[in-house]
Design a protein that fits this description.
By secondary structure, the chain is mostly helical. 76% of the residues lie in helices and 0% in strands. The protein has six helices and no strands. Helix 1 runs antiparallel to helix 5. The longest helix is centred in the middle third of the chain and has 36 residues. The protein starts with a helix and ends in a 7-residue tail after the last helix. It is a multi-pass membrane protein. It holds the Pfam family DctQ. Belongs to the TRAP transporter small permease family. This is TRAP transporter small permease protein.
């Protein structure tokens, strides 16, 4: 199970990186188009890629301790109190992100059913970029539940072990 979850987080991170690279490609197309006298409007496409990259990168970032954390209270605690607070925060976060995922999934389904199109030059079905948001939130919910399990079972979350911004 651990290997499957780590593969899921890695795949999500790779997809986020691909969408980030697609933003650069779309900007290059705009630059080349302008130099050739062509109008290439990739602004909307870049926005879609940005939302997919942002949400798909959430779980990968959490897993590697790259999320911004304000540990003022948590760092002041030790032992079982710290573990209890970290567990509470993970549980509440998983609940909130899970609820957001549910709402995003319903919104994506409605966009698909109603045939919603983007308002830009290229009328793209809106459910396609919304799918990246929903998938990213679903994977983040799994990652938070995974961290909660680690906290309960082993007493330490993976995001703490991999905290890259530690001042210690």
């Amino acid at each position: 199970m651990r290997k499957s979850l780590d593969s899921l987080y890695l795949a999500s991170g790779v997809l986020a990186a691909i969408f980030l690279a697609l933003i650069a490609v779309s900007i290059l197309f705009q630059i080349v188009g302008r130099s050739l006298g062509l109008v290439v409007d990739a602004t909307e496409f870049s926005g879609f890629c940005l939302s997919a990259s942002t949400f798909l990168g959430l779980a990968y970032s959490l897993r590697h301790g790259a999320h911004v954390r304000v540990g003022l209270l948590v760092d002041a605690l030790s032992g079982s109190w710290r573990r209890l607070l970290e567990s509470f925060v993970c549980a509440v976060s998983a609940g909130v992100v899970g609820w957001l995922c549910w709402c995003a999934a319903l919104y994506t389904q409605q966009s698909y059913e109603y045939g919603d199109l983007s308002p830009g030059l290229i009328a793209a079905p809106l459910w396609i970029p919304q799918l990246g948001i929903t998938l990213g939130l679903a994977i983040m919910t799994v990652a938070l539940l995974d961290e909660l399990y680690r906290l309960i079972r082993y007493g330490r979350a993976n995001y703490i072990d991999n905290d890259s911004g530690s001042l210690e």
